Amino acid sequence: MLVLGASVAIVSTSAIMIRLALGEGVASLSIAVWRLGIAAIILSLVVAAKPAMRHEISALPLKAVALAVASGVFLAAHFASWISSLSFTSVASSTALVTTNPIWIALISWLFLRERLHRSLLIGIASAMFGSALIFLSDARASIVGVGSNPMLGNALAIVGSLTVCGYLLLGRKLRQTFSLLAYIWLVYSSAALTLLLCAWVADVPLVGFSWLAWACLAGLAIGPQLIGHTGINWSLKHAPATVIAVAILGEPIASALMAWWLFDERFQPLQMVGFSLLLLGIFLSARSAGKSGEGNSRESAEIGAG
Fold first, then answer.
1. CA–CA gap between residue 273 and residue 275 (Å, rounded)
2. 242-264 and 14-23 are packed helices; what angle lies between their axes, rounded to 10 degrees?
3. What is the pTM of this model?
4. Confidence check: pLDDT of 292 > 70
5. Kind and range of the H or E element at 179?
6. Does the pLDDT at position 297 exceed 50?
7. For the chain, how are helix, strand and coil distributed in percent, rounded to 5?
8. Residue 100: which residues within 8 A CB-CB, separation 6 or more?
9. In angstroms, rounded to a whole number, what is the distance separating the alpha carbons of residues 296 and 179?
């Protein structure tokens, strides 16, 4: 429980450090490149120091490596779209909408895997969809103090970030049955970093020349939310009940929103607050319902989608 709570708290700082880096003039794509790039470099040093890990990775079948690379591409798309969303909308709206991945995974499982939708899951999906609609409506009607001028675009990008992380999680569910955790995250983070680096090169996005505060935020994102936070959550997925994981999901957008309120004076509009609450209720019901139909599925889909 302590590991899970600490991990979620660390992940919750992600949106804040991104907003600070954006304020220092760092492009969204550059933030994504360095977040995954620094994490991949650190992991590469760890892998290089472990002969057994090098042997495991070299012995992996080509199909498994290809799937890991595909998972990394989904992760790259997730961070590129979600980090971009924070240039246009509030931290509260962005982090709430990007954590809707349990909703999309439940729908994907129903459509393509023929998994049954329980009543609580249907209620959760309806609650989340209605809450999302209220957030979009609120952001369309009122300008958000201290936030970019296009909250509707930011909210849409956060939804794209939630959808793309589903590919990462669904592939991860399959790959983690044969990969060790270190081998899996090294392959995925490295392929995600290379994908983002290629995109930055094509888009001619600057990757250097930042302020000391910007570099501190970039290093903090890689070491904190990416390596410590997500590693702790992955560890907790095997040791905590599904309902506890479902509750933990809610901690990230709530803590991020509170920090943004305190640091950036991003206050809730009344309609946005209602939508935020309904959305988080829907996420909780969906993740908890998934636990009734399969503990493993719930835990994979319960991983934090934003931080």
1. 5
2. 30
3. 0.88
4. no
5. none
6. no
7. 80, 0, 20
8. 128, 132, 159, 162, 279, 282, 283, 305
9. 16
What tokens appear for 129 in the block? 């969809």
- Which residue shows structure tokens 């250097």? 208
CA distance 29 to 147: 18
The DSSP code sequence of 50-90 is -HHHHHHHHTS-HHHHHHHHHHHHHHHHHHHHHHHHTTTS-
**Amino acid residing at 154:** G
Half-sphere exposure of residue 68: CA atoms within 13 angstroms, side-chain side: 25
CB 84 within 8 A of CB 200: no
What are the angstrom distances between the C-alpha of 125 and each of 5, 27, 35, 159, 288?
A: 25, 34, 31, 14, 12
Residues 85 and 120: their CA atoms lie apart, in Å, by 30
Q: What is the dihedral of CA 121, 124, 129, 133, to 10 degrees?
A: 170
Residue 39 CB-half CA count within 13 A: 30
Tell me the range of 11-25, 84-98, 109-123 where mean pLDDT is highest: 11-25
What residues contact residue 238 under an 8 Å CB cut-off, 6+ apart?
299
Interval 162-210: pLDDT, tens: 999 888 888 887 787 778 888 989 999 999 999 999 999 999 999 999 9
Residue 60 phi, psi dihedral angles, 5° rounding: -70, 140
- From residue 40, how far is each of 86, 216, 292 by CA, in Å? 23, 17, 35
Taking the C-alpha atoms of residue 220 and residue 141, their distance in angstroms, rounded to an integer, is: 35
Amino acid in position 212: W
Are 9 and 304 within 8 A, CB to CB?
no
Short-list 283, 288, 292, 285, CA closest to 115: 292
User: CB neighbours (10 Å) of residue 239?
Assistant: 12
